[in-house]
């Protein structure tokens, strides 16, 4: 019998009857590892693409906002700025991100649309409906200008992007693995029953293995469709239909009971 490794099986899951017969006979519970391999590869690509777009967006925001920052000095816990009136730092979409208010002219930050308010003796950060106030250190002297802001954020960017990649990758991998395992268990019951009706040499372990393989085309199709910039109606129904088609195909290509007895071990 022709054998397939997990990476080869990702491609052959679209058309190879030999793969589905091999999985039913040889994989059984290894189907869990196969699905984990597929999702690990897929989420690595998704996380890389996602962090690339985040990095690109962050670079655009930094290039737009950094020149707006006035020269400031923090000494003895007090902020001094060349600008006496509030300076609003805006995003590319013209929304206010931060306000530099060295003269303490803004009395009620809750009514402002900005997320950050930098004042003479403290700075305030909005967290949803809450405002957290922080004091400056009285033991340090810091001078900040537009170029410093760009350098600071650029230095932090590597750590931020790395953390986002890891979190995005692990969360996506874990939740998709749990969800698709449940789907595979449901489909495997259908495959096993249909296999009995069609008198195929397919026990439950084999039915579960081919269900994991049958998931592959719909997973890849769903990923491709999610990248389309416009809304596609009935996308989930299309992917589910593809899954059902491959599930029935997985049963159909199995040998009949009278040709080859089921080779699964007793579960």
Describe this structure in words.
The protein has 267 residues and is α+β, with helices and mostly antiparallel strands. It has 2 domains: 143 residues, no CATH class; 75 residues, no CATH class. Helix content is 55%, strand content 14%. The chain contains 6 helices and 8 strands. The strands form 2 sheets. The chain has a 5-stranded mixed beta sheet with strand order 3-4-5-6-7, with no helix packed on it. Helix 4 crosses helix 6. It is rod-shaped, with a radius of gyration of 29 Å. The chain starts with 5 loop residues before the first helix and ends in a 15-residue tail after the last helix.
Features:
267 residues; alpha+beta; 2 domains; three-stranded antiparallel beta sheet; 8 strands; five-stranded mixed beta sheet
Largest sheet: 5 strands, mixed
Number of domains: 2
User: Between the first and last Cα atoms, what is the distance in angstroms?
Assistant: 23 Å
Mean pLDDT: 89
What string, H for helix and E for strand, traces the elements in order? HHHEEEEEEEEHHH
Q: What topology, given as strand order, has the largest sheet?
A: 3-4-5-6-7
Q: Compute the CA-based radius of gyration.
A: 29 Å
The low-pLDDT segments are none
Silhouette: rod-shaped
Share of helix among residues?
40-55%
| Strand content range | 5-15%
Count of individual helical segments: 6
Topology:
Layout lengths: L5 H7 L4 H11 L3 H35 L6 E4 L2 E4 L5 E4 L5 E6 L14 E4 L2 E6 L2 E6 L5 E4 L1 H52 L6 H23 L8 H18 L15
Parallel strand pairs: 4-5
Antiparallel strand pairs: 1-2, 1-8, 3-4, 5-6, 6-7
Helix pairs in contact: 2-5, 3-4, 3-5, 4-5, 4-6, 5-6
């Amino acid at each position: 019998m022709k054998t397939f490794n997990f990476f080869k099986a990702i491609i052959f899951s679209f058309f190879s009857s030999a793969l589905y017969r091999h999985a039913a006979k040889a994989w059984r519970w290894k189907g869990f590892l196969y699905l984990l391999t597929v999702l690990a590869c897929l989420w690595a690509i998704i996380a890389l693409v996602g962090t690339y777009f985040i990095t690109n967006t962050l670079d655009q925001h930094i290039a737009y906002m950094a020149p707006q920052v006035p020269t400031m000095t923090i000494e003895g816990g007090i902020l001094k700025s060349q600008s006496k009136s509030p300076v609003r730092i805006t995003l590319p979409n013209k929304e206010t991100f931060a306000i530099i208010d060295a003269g303490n002219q803004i009395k009620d930050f809750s009514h402002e649309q900005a997320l950050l308010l930098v004042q003479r003796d403290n700075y305030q950060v909005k967290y949803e409906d809450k405002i957290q106030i922080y004091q400056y250190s009285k033991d340090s002297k810091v001078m900040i200008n537009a170029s410093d802001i760009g350098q600071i954020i650029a230095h932090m960017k590597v750590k931020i992007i790395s953390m986002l990649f890891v979190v995005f990758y692990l969360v996506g991998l874990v939740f998709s693995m749990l969800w698709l395992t449940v789907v595979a268990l449901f489909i495997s019951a259908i495959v096993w029953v249909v296999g009995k009706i069609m008198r195929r040499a397919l026990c439950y372990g084999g039915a579960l293995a081919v269900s994991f393989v049958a998931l592959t085309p719909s997973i890849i199709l769903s990923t491709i469709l999610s990248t389309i910039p416009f809304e596609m109606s009935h996308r989930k129904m299309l992917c589910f239909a593809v899954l059902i088609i491959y599930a029935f195909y997985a049963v159909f290509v199995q040998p009949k009971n009278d040709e080859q007895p089921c080779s699964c071990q007793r579960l």
